[in-house]
Amino acid sequence: MSRLVVTLTMGLLCGMSMAQGPIASHAPTVPATVGGAAPTTVVVARVNGVALTQADLDQQETAIFPYFRMHGGRIPPGAEPEIRSMAMQRIVLDELLYQEARRRNLKLPEARFQKGLRELRESFSSPKAYEEAVTKKYGSDSAFEQRMRRTLLARELWEAEVTRKSVVTPAEVRAYYENNKARFVRPEAISIQSISVMFPQGATDKQKEDARKRAEELLLRARATKNYEEFGVLAEQVSEDPWRVMMGDHNWVHRGEVDSQFNVIFSMKPAETTGVVESKEGFHILRVNDRQPQRQMTFTEMRDRLAKELGTKRRQERAEKFEQSLRKNAKIEM
């Protein structure tokens, strides 16, 4: 709770979005002035008769585009239409959330507000630094606290309708695993190193012939190496592919990921070296270092990843559904 409150309210002071995580495009944010400038009263939209101003839109644009200040306080022209559209959608959603929270007569627990305010104050280097930030953005403590209450009230509604309704239980995670076991089969994998002699795109027969001769010379040296380190040192010295800077190490490659001409590696034993293998880019020598057979991943291995995956999907679906319900009966004028 404490980290969340500080994140949200710091966003109000620093022009950051309070939206966090994978559903940032749906989570509620609250507009603030930008860089201490006086808010403009130009109306850019109305939600059930409530005016949303250019200041609201400006703040959202800076939150969506984090490199705003690096570009001289401007959004690059090419990105402006998309960012403006996203910002407009967000400020409308913010207002819809706040209005719905008021309609439901939701109450923000005073203890929660006071705790959040205290933690926010303590996150500044000094009381003076806090007061300066509040005054620069809002003019007074009371104006800032009013905006903070609005922020937290909107978050209360969001948590009730999206966050808490998106919880995935351990039983649901287990059921998903059992019903989709085929998804969690780790394919056969081989750990390899490579030494390559490349030829240019559209190479002539002569260029390819020269490259093959060079590769065949290197094959003798490659097969003379006795271990991973010796092959890797040779790769660093003579190979022409991108993996040479990593001792030729490709780490693990899975069956189905490699071009068919390289499938020979799946019939080899660790410490064996291929002959010269041709591809459309050059000639290659591969050393097999280790192998992993195909294996069914256990529920224990997959549990945390699945819980996160299912939770993210459910939150996104719930967020979209809830936002649609808010917009359905609202009068929104752009």
Task: Report on the architecture of this protein.
β6 and β7 form a beta hairpin. With 334 residues, the protein is α+β, with helices and mostly antiparallel strands. A four-stranded antiparallel sheet has the order 5-4-7-6. A three-stranded antiparallel sheet has the order 2-1-9. A two-stranded antiparallel ribbon has the order 3-8. It folds into two domains: 2-167 and 326-333, Triger factor/SurA peptide-binding fold; 188-293, Chitinase A, domain 3 (Roll). The longest helix is centred in the C-terminal third of the chain and has 30 residues, at 299-328. It has ten helices and nine strands. The chain has helices at 2-14, 54-64, 80-103, 110-123, 127-138, 141-163, 170-179, 205-224, 228-238, 299-328, and strands spanning 43-47, 50-53, 185-186, 189-198, 249-254, 277-278, 282-292, 295-296, 332-333. 50% of the residues lie in helices and 13% in strands.
